[in-house]
Design a protein that fits this description.
Layout (H helix, E strand, L loop, with lengths): L1 H7 L4 E3 L2 E2 L2 H9 L8 H10 L13 H12 L4 H30 L13 H9 L13 H10 L9 H18 L11 H29 L3 H11 L8 H12 L8 H10 L1 H4 L3 H4 L29 H4 L1 H13 L3 H10 L19 H6 L9 H9 L4 H10 L10 H33 L5 H16 L19 H11 L10 H18 L3 H14 L2 H14 L9 H11 L2 H7 L1 H11 L12 H15 L21 H27 L4
Antiparallel strand pairs: 1-2
Helix pairs in contact: 2-5, 4-5, 5-6, 5-9, 5-10, 6-8, 7-9, 8-9, 9-10, 11-12, 16-17, 16-21, 19-28, 20-21, 21-22, 21-25, 21-27, 22-24, 23-26, 24-25, 26-27, 26-30, 28-29, 29-30
Length: 675
């Protein structure tokens, strides 16, 4: 009877004579065209498919399959599985679908063809609360009641779960946005970003009861409930730190290891609270002492062992925007990837007052801000080279819109252009902007040193990112990081530039410079701060040079018509450093451009990878760094024009020994009073 009711419906009609079924919540999502799938559903499929976009179709009916199996077996969890799987995911779809309809209305020549309905908000809240729900109780059959049940396990239903209260407030916020005259029209395009921001906050709240119920299932050693709530939540972690996702998938989706080693699994779950949009305090305290201690993120949480003294954790979370844009683009969800780029998702601005609107940092804002003049002469170099003040934004928007050089390229190529431009052009220039602002604050004695210190900490946040974690060297899993720091670690092994711990020597230098700059700011040593900033500005281009050479090696064997992402990556990395090379050595820049910037019908890297490496070598003196930090592979040597990497390293080692002996001699003479 339960299975028949699930499949055929009983109490609700979509139109006269046509029953609405609970199964349709899952089936409707599975039937969507790939371009119409919405972010939460896509992230879930991505996680279930082990991040293999060719296998998304294998999991379209994951919720329906679980529910039907539960109903057929008479499981006591069957009803909860309908709510946690079918209804939860469809509720997120309603929110996103409302935003997409609103966006279409703002650009439509004939808006009357679109039915906005309740803009997703009314439809969402109806599904969340249901028809027969008593306020503040578990006496219901929808997401509100399930949330009450989850909150009670963590002492949070008094009488209404905070999540339910917050969702009702956020619904009112979204409904208010839609009620303004001209909402979702050409005249009021601000409706879209406002709805987007509200929806992100709602979905963050929606994650909390799933996490509470999963934690309870693990602690109470309930395999059935663990499987259910792991299926409901863990695939969403694919949008977070890759290493945590891989461990949780292995433990909770691929097996039941959580039952035998719960503390490790719970620790991994707690580590993704921040990415999923909530904190330890939002989950609450479990009613027994069985859960490991959970602590909210401290002000001075280290970034790969660099310890900021100001609040920059939320700044560092911009790397999650980069990762999630990449994931959405890889599944051809370009419209939602564009919204994430334009409106942000993971990096909230501080809210010192409840009356201040909730706002997010955005990559688009970084790519277009007038503040970039603080990064001169580097910003001027890029704007002049591309003849476009918003050079990076132009490429990203065109590629997302299916226009420009890469708009008609393969999915893999478009994804690479979009994500690499975000990480290594937009955030590179924004880090330089903060460097320039920190130097200005230092030179302006009227500005407190804490202002410059905060801007300096922001530099670290935008170069390292949140996904590297707090430990020395950064993340052990090289898939985690998304920014320049991670790029340096990925290239270190390939170019023999790693230290004894296996991390990049470039990052060793970078961390030393970050600490030195902080001390110089605090002591108003502005002259040396300027030198430190200049060192950083050039140093962080070295991993980009290594990457250009890596793709030169790969692309020399590819035709220009290849759909390989390596061609687009090689060009994007080259363009991320060419404007600076152009300033120092126009001839070298021309060589790099002719070999790395793709031209139809012209063989990529026609002069060979070593020719490209030699061009970089001629510019490195002006960068202030030795070719040793760029390194060598068996096929290409950044130091060949200097006699080869071995000879240059030997000379550098000899020079260091000479400098050490000279210093010791001078010290001895001083001690003897002879100087």
């Amino acid at each position: 009877a339960g299975l028949s009711l699930y499949l055929n419906g009983l109490n609700s009609e979509t139109r006269p004579g046509i029953k609405f079924t609970l199964r349709s919540l899952s089936q409707n999502l599975a039937d969507l065209l790939p371009s119409a799938r919405t972010p939460s559903y896509l992230f879930h499929l991505f996680g279930l498919a082990d991040r293999d976009t060719t296998k998304l179709g294998d999991h379209l009916l994951y919720a329906d399959n679980f529910v039907q199996s539960s109903l057929s077996s008479g499981s006591a969890l069957a009803t909860d599985s309908i709510v946690a799987l079918n209804m939860w995911m469809y509720a997120t779809h309603l929110l996103y679908n409302g935003i997409e309809t609103c966006r279409k209305l703002t650009v439509a020549n004939n808006p009357s063809v679109f039915d906005l309905g309740g803009g997703g908000m009314d439809e969402f809240i109806g599904l969340w609360i249901g028809n027969d729900q008593k306020p503040g109780t578990e006496d219901g059959h929808s997401l509100y009641a399930l949330t009450q049940k989850a909150a009670a396990l963590f002492g949070q239903s008094d009488p209404e779960a905070p999540v339910n209260s917050n969702i009702k407030l956020l619904y009112n916020e979204g409904a208010s946005t839609l009620s303004f005259p001209g909402a979702c029209s050409r005249e009021n395009s601000d409706t879209v970003p406002q709805l987007w921001t509200t929806a992100q906050r709602i979905i963050s709240q929606m994650n909390i009861p799933l996490m509470q119920l999963l934690l309870d299932a693990i602690v109470s050693r309930n395999p059935g409930a663990t499987r259910l709530y792991a299926l409901a939540l863990v695939p969403q972690v694919a949008q977070c730190r890759p290493s945590a996702y891989k461990r949780l998938k292995e433990s909770l989706l691929d097996g039941v290891a959580a039952i035998t080693r719960p503390d490790e699994v719970i620790g991994d779950l707690q580590s993704v609270y921040d990415c999923l949009g909530f904190q330890c305090s939002d989950v609450g305290a479990y009613l027994t002492d069985s859960l490991p201690q959970c602590a909210d993120i401290p002000v001075n949480l280290p970034l790969a062992e660099y310890r900021p003294t100001t609040r920059v954790h939320s700044h560092s979370k911009i790397d999650l925007d980069v990762l999630q844009i990449k994931i959405l683009s890889s599944m051809e969800a370009y419209s939602f990837a564009k919204m994430l780029y334009l409106y942000g998702r993971n990096s909230p601005l501080p809210q010192d007052d409840d009356n201040v609107p909730y706002r997010l940092r955005t990559l688009h804002g970084f790519a277009t801000t007038a503040d970039r003049t603080a990064a001169n002469p580097f910003y001027s170099d890029f704007a002049s080279y591309f003849n476009d003040p918003n050079y990076a934004d132009t490429v990203i928007i065109q590629t997302l819109d299916g226009q420009g050089k890469w708009g008609g390229a393969s999915t893999e190529q478009r994804t690479e252009v979009i994500s690499d431009t975000c990480a290594f052009q937009v955030l590179y220039m924004h880090a330089l902007t903060e460097l320039g602002s920190a130097m200005s604050a230092c030179n302006n004695k009227a500005v407190r040193s804490s202002t410059g210190a905060h801007q300096w900490d922001e530099v670290a946040a935008y170069l390292i990112g949140s996904l590297e974690g707090p430990n020395a060297g950064g993340a052990v899993d090289l898939e985690d990081g998304q920014l320049v720091w991670s790029l340096a670690n990925r290239r270190a092994f390939q170019f023999q530039t790693e230290n004894k711990e296996g991390f990049s020597e470039i990052n060793v230098h970078l961390e030393d410079l970050l600490f030195a700059g902080k001390a110089q700011i605090n002591s108003f040593d502005c002259g040396n701060l300027a030198k430190t900033a200049d060192r950083i500005q050039h140093l962080i281009l070295l991993p980009i040079i290594q990457s250009t050479l890596r793709y030169a090696l790969i692309n020399k064997d590819l035709p220009s018509s290849s759909p390989s992402k390596d061609l687009s990556a090689g060009e994007t990395f080259a363009l991320s450093v060419l404007p600076v090379v152009q300033r120092y050595d126009g001839e070298s820049a021309q060589v790099i451009e002719e070999n790395m910037v793709l031209r139809s019908g012209v063989q990529p890297v026609q002069n060979g990878p070593q020719f490209v490496a030699d061009a970089f070598y001629r510019a490195l003196d002006d960068f202030g760094y030795s070719c040793i930090l760029v390194g060598a592979t068996p096929e290409v040597d950044a130091c060949q024009l200097g006699g080869g990497i071995g000879a240059v390293r030997g000379a550098a080692s000899g020079a260091s020994t000479f400098q050490l002996l000279t210093s010791l001699t001078l010290l001895s003479l001083c001690t003897l009073g002879m100087l």
